[in-house]
Amino acid sequence: MNIVISPAERGRYHAHLAGRLLCTSLTPLFSAARVLKAEGVLPQEPLIMTHEGSDMVCLTSTVGEAASFTVDEGRNSGPTLRPYRPSPFARPE
């Protein structure tokens, strides 16, 4: 599965799969993987990410692995890969 990203606003990216918008996010591969996982895509399904207009692969993972991570940008450190935890304030879908 190839996630194609394009710039959105304020550092966010639109993530598309076969022309369908999956999400707009600061972490498009991870967020798109969570959407796909929620839709029933198998966790072992390979996932790659490219930029719109380019065939160069930027990132690669599986749906399950990518869905389990997020990026934390602390005040005193650079970006760090962390386990994903849903917000306790998120509304159930």
From TrEMBL:
Domain of life, source organism: Bacteria
Region (Disordered): 71-93
The protein's name: Uncharacterized protein
Native source species: Methylorubrum populi (strain ATCC BAA-705 / NCIMB 13946 / BJ001) (Methylobacterium populi)
